[in-house]
Design brief:
Layout (H helix, E strand, L loop, with lengths): L2 E7 L4 E7 L4 E5 L6 H13 L3 E6 L5 H4 L2 H8 L3 E4 L3 H5 L1 H7 L12 E3 L4 E4 L2 E7 L8 E5 L4 E5 L2 E2 L2 E2 L9 H10 L9 E4 L5 E2 H7 L6
Parallel strand pairs: 3-4, 4-5, 5-6, 10-13
Antiparallel strand pairs: 1-2, 2-3, 7-8, 8-9, 9-10, 11-12, 13-14
Length: 213
């Protein structure tokens, strides 16, 4: 059974997730560590729990979700996996940082592309890849059927949804995909979002003001 630990980083308050199982193999999902203290916090958690990072994975490649990509590639010596529809978004990182007045952004390069379906494996665990565009053009969600856990990026939040006014966003596409993909998951599925507290599919279907189940 997987375990999930949340680290909240940067002025954007982005949730970085360390995910591992009993084998101690781990993946880092959306490393948003921005400064040296945040990088140290991430490494300290990995070392304290004696985890072996085997992959870095992005749900999508907006600026706040990729701050720590290069640091993690260099520190842990592992490959970076990004959605195939997010290559252009990753390449826009430096320009986005300049737009927001954020200094010191370090560009990362992907090692592998994730298809819009399939699996991510580590240790004894398998995450199903779900294609849920709308917030960004190639956005993926990673779902563990056994644990009923979804690493949701910026698709669905507690009482809210991802913004769609950024490049590549489309409001109706996001709403449609929340209904047709996210809301098809079991109601007890815990959604770990890119920002804010976790929620469940059942709670959002009942009460999300933007898209009801």
């Amino acid at each position: 059974m997987i375990k999930v630990h949340t680290l909240t980083f940067s002025p954007f308050q982005e949730n970085t997730y360390v995910v591992w199982d009993d084998t101690k193999e781990a993946i880092i999902v959306d490393p948003g560590c921005y400064d040296a203290s945040e990088e140290k916090e991430l490494v300290s958690f990995i070392e304290t729990n004696e985890l072996k990072v085997v992959k870095i994975v992005n749900t999508h490649c907006h600026l706040d979700h990729v701050f720590g990509n290069k640091f993690c590639q260099d520190t842990f010596g592992v490959k970076l996996y990004i959605p195939k529809g997010e290559v252009e978004m990753l390449a826009m990182g430096s320009a986005s940082a300049a737009k927001y007045g954020i200094p010191g952004f370090i560009t990362s390069r992907h090692d592998e592309l994730l298809e819009n379906s399939g699996e991510i494996t580590f240790g004894e665990s398998t995450l199903e890849i779900l294609y849920v565009p709308g917030h960004s053009p190639g956005h993926l969600v990673f779902f563990d059927k056994e644990a009923k856990v979804a690493l949701g990026g910026d698709v669905l939040f507690k009482g809210s949804i991802g913004r769609t006014d950024l490049p590549g966003g489309d409001h109706q596409t996001l709403l449609d995909n929340i209904k047709s993909v996210m809301y098809k998951l079991p109601s007890e599925t815990v959604v770990y979002p890119g920002h804010g507290p976790f929620t469940t599919i059942g709670d959002e279907k009942r009460s999300n003001p933007f898209v009801k189940g």
